[in-house]
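Practice problem: predict the structure.
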Amino acid sequence: MPLATRKSLGRAKARSTADGEAITQLKKSARDGKLVAVIGTGVSMALTDGKNPALSWKGLIENGFAYGVTKGKITTTQSASWKNQLNSNDLDDLLGAAEFMGRKLGAPDGDLYARWLETVFKNVEPLDNEMARAVRVLHAAGVPFCTLNYDHLLARIMQLRLAGVV
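Answer:
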């Protein structure tokens, strides 16, 4: 066997061993109640195969700007002037754009803001894909979940009913 092939196999075996150890540690942490799954927008995007850009933070903010323009709360000039912040890699720029859009829609408890969020998330359905199966396995293992996502995809996958949610 060529040396390069032996090295490749050795690395693969080491990775496999490390993966096995990591899985063993995760199982132990779950059993001991020392594991919490922190779920973010990446999971939501994966649960829908990325078909709904509004499930990402940037996509949600862009959607909010578009909604604000259609409702007359944000002018097209204002929306255009915030475009650079939305496309920036600087988190402060993105947060600034989100703050502006939220104020214009009446966040956090205004009716317009609530209607916008409802239009974005009400009919979002998860796919029965690899991510959904992974979430269900964690849930079945008793791993608690923590999320700040606005969508209800986790509850739908785990077949939980939330108060006020159909």
